[in-house]
């Protein structure tokens, strides 16, 4: 009888201890709490362990054997590379489309558009590293297409990811290029569009299609498949829209 009860509790513990290791692009870190909460309403026995970083660095970690089950990237390039190298077991699917914004903690005259970056009042501009962070690459593309990159290059301060760039923007620089999604987080809702931030014209950069893949470690893992399906489903899409993404 005692052995039977012990086995029962051990089985129960194993169910509650089921964990998904999620490698997450930094720009999605602002929405992930709402996403995991909704997922756990459907699957309360699954824990999501989130590892946040730039898409490039997370990809390097995966290629070097990091024990992740799912990768949610800020673009499609890195998931495609993982699929081609057989480190992902699903071809990449777009779960959301991200947008760029530029933010200042001080009130600014955003009627000037991006030309505000080339004024004397702006001496430091935060941008994510374009070599590893897709939002940084998109920022460079926008600046180049706006004929501003060479003019303001000396002002740029690099962050390793969208999250670090946001940290610099609110604490150390005059203005920064951030994921629009970050501006819908509770901590940043005090900043007002047209006063503290403005969207970057979407025609200045390629759409930021963000991709998700199941990694080879997740093969046969039902909880990982459930989360993957959830992220591509309607309930998650509503949350992404709430956080400023496009579907």
Structural description of this entry:
By secondary structure, this protein is of the alpha/beta class. It folds into 2 domains: 2-97 and 208-242, D-Maltodextrin-Binding Protein, domain 2, CATH 3.40.190; 98-204, 3-Layer(aba) Sandwich (D-Maltodextrin-Binding Protein, domain 2). The protein is 36% helix and 21% strand. It has a 5-stranded mixed beta sheet, with helices on both faces. A 5-stranded mixed beta sheet has the order 7-6-8-5-9. Helix 2 (32-42) packs antiparallel against helix 9. The longest helix has 15 residues, at 2-16. The protein is globular, with a radius of gyration of 20 Å. It starts with a helix and ends in a 5-residue tail after the last helix. The model has no long low-confidence stretch (mean pLDDT 92).
Question: What do the pLDDT scores average to?
Answer: 92
Helical/strand content category = alpha/beta
What is the level 1 CATH name of the largest domain? Alpha Beta
Strand order of the largest sheet: 2-1-3-10-4
CATH topology of the largest domain, by name, is: D-Maltodextrin-Binding Protein, domain 2
Q: Name the CATH homologous superfamily of the largest domain.
A: Periplasmic binding protein-like II
* C-alpha-based Rg, rounded: 20 Å
Distance between the termini: 54 Å
Describe the sheet with the most strands. 5 strands, mixed
Which parts are unreliable, with pLDDT below 50 for 5 consecutive residues or more? none
Number of helices: 9
- The geometry reads as globular
Q: Give the total of domains.
A: 2
Order of helices and strands: HEHEHEHEEEHHEHEEEHH
CATH architecture of the largest domain: 3-Layer(aba) Sandwich
Q: Which percent bin holds the helix content?
A: 25-40%
